[in-house]
Design brief:
Blueprint: E1 2-3, E2 9-10, H1 16-21, H2 32-38, E3 45-47, E4 69-70, E5 75-76, H3 88-99, H4 109-122, E6 133-136, E7 139-141, E8 144-147, E9 150-152, H5 155-162, H6 170-182, H7 190-199
Antiparallel strand pairs: 1-2, 3-6, 4-5, 7-8, 8-9
Helix pairs in contact: 5-6, 6-7
Organism: Mucuna pruriens (Velvet bean)
Domain Reverse transcriptase: 2-102
Protein name: Reverse transcriptase domain-containing protein
Length: 202
């Protein structure tokens, strides 16, 4: 069991051996930049998060036994798609692309929401109200801040760099590089600016 940021628990199973035996699915995942660019610069925004999204997808009956795991009391298997499977992300993305195959164009916001709710209801998908927000002007998405002005840097990521002490080890240099990389979209000539830092790793 792994404790989530919310304090709740998530059950995780080690599927290393199963994943080695499974071929990698070819379904592509969308790039973060494409997703972020596609939803910026709108006056109103709504953010929705599926409640345990993977667990809302049924396993094929013939594959349920492959997800089996052992506890102190007994052996169990999943009837829904668990976290940890190699192709879980691609499978979930394929479902989203299938049920939302017709793009919802920018129109009156409440009408767009009505249509989204209709699709979710049709496919019996549930949302997590704790992670949803509707008709807001500013919101966090994929690590970026979305506003009517466009895409802006996440203040938390900025503070992570500002508040970091000068690196004292290779590990801390790598941490700094990762944090700077997360903000590279907003840094002019980011590769050249980060070159002196990168050079310390050689």
């Amino acid at each position: 069991m792994v404790r989530k940021a919310s304090g709740k628990w998530r059950m995780c199973t080690d599927y290393t051996d199963l994943n080695k035996a499974c071929p990698k699915g070819p379904y592509p995942l969308p790039s973060i930049d494409r997703l972020v660019d596609g939803v910026s610069s709108f006056a109103l925004l709504s953010f929705m998060d599926a409640y345990s999204g993977y667990n809302q997808i049924r396993m094929h009956p013939h594959d349920e036994a492959k997800t089996a795991f052992i506890t102190d009391d007994s052996a169990f298997c999943y009837k829904v798609m668990p976290f940890g499977l190699k192709n879980a992300g691609a499978t979930y993305q394929r479902l989203m692309d299938k049920i939302f195959k017709e793009s919802i164009v920018a129109s009156e916001h409440y009408k767009a929401l009505e249509r989204v709710f209709g699709i979710l209801r049709k496919h019996q998908l549930r949302l997590n109200p704790e992670k949803c927000s509707f008709e807001v002007h500013v919101g966090k998405f994929m690590g970026f801040m979305l506003t009517e002005r466009g895409i802006e840097a996440n203040p938390e990521k900025c503070q992570a760099v500002i508040g970091m002490r000068s690196p004292q080890s290779i590990k801390e240099v790598q941490q700094l590089m990762d944090r700077v990389k997360a903000l590279s979209r907003f840094i002019s000539h980011a590769p050249e600016t980060a070159m002196p830092i990168f050079g310390t790793l050689k």
